[in-house]
């Protein structure tokens, strides 16, 4: 566990966690990105339980970052560009509760920043539909199994050919001319 005065944690759910690691991993100040599950009622859930859509957990990433180098707001700017914030039934080819989007705040400051960021996106006119991404208090974060960690790096061909990855890339290209 990385610790320090300026070391913070962000927990973001954006559909398949395989797709949510690399967008953050490449930024200075991001120290660690891990895949896992949060928001449900089972203790120590496994992938097989979460994918049934009955555990209440969402696939998410936990981002450990140095706030002197990268801000929570910047992480949210990156996050919004990775998801369809108007889809409350999952993300791209991944459907169901465990693939819904959410920002899990760890303190009051994160909550306020997340709410303001969501409102700014809603007011931007970027999307015709309402922004449905939930802002929730952080709960226990359970690490996903080892084979899910850094999946895009460990299995680049399988990752690149994944249907949800392709649909996400198309969505990003269509909606965001300039990425953070």
Task: Provide a descriptive summary of the structure in words.
- By secondary structure, the protein is α+β, with helices and mostly antiparallel strands.
- Helix 3 packs parallel to helix 4.
- A six-stranded mixed sheet has the order 7-6-1-3-2-8, with helices on one face. A two-stranded antiparallel ribbon has the order 4-5.
- It has a single domain, classed as 2-Layer Sandwich (Peptide Methionine Sulfoxide Reductase, Chain A).
- The radius of gyration is 15 Å and the shape is globular.
- The model has no long low-confidence stretch (mean pLDDT 93).
- It contains seven helices and eight strands.
- Helix 4 links the parallel strand 6 and strand 7.
Summarize the structure.
This protein has 180 residues and is α+β, with helices and mostly antiparallel strands. It contains seven helices and eight strands. It has helices at 17-25, 47-50, 72-80, 108-123, 151-154, 156-161, 163-175; strands at residues 7-14, 30-38, 58-66, 90-91, 94-95, 101-105, 134-137, 141-143.
Topology:
Layout lengths: L6 E8 L2 H9 L4 E9 L8 H4 L7 E9 L5 H9 L9 E2 L2 E2 L5 E5 L2 H16 L10 E4 L3 E3 L7 H4 L1 H6 L1 H13 L5
Helix pairs in contact: 3-4
Feature tags:
180 residues, alpha+beta, Peptide Methionine Sulfoxide Reductase, Chain A, six-stranded mixed beta sheet, two-stranded antiparallel ribbon, globular
Mean pLDDT: 93
Overall tally of domains: 1
Strand content: 15-25%
Number of strands: 8
Shape: globular
Count every helix, treating DSSP H or I runs of 4 or more residues as helices.
7
Q: What level of helicity do the residues show?
A: 25-40%
Distance between the first and last residues' Cα = 27 Å
Stated plainly, the CATH topology is called Peptide Methionine Sulfoxide Reductase, Chain A
Question: Which sequence of SSEs, written as H and E, runs from N to C?
Answer: EHEHEHEEEHEEHHH
Indicate the CATH class: Alpha Beta
Neighbour order of strands in the largest sheet: 7-6-1-3-2-8
Unreliable residue stretches: none
Rounded Rg:
15 Å
Q: What class, by secondary structure content?
A: alpha+beta
Let me know the CATH homologous superfamily. Peptide methionine sulphoxide reductase MsrA
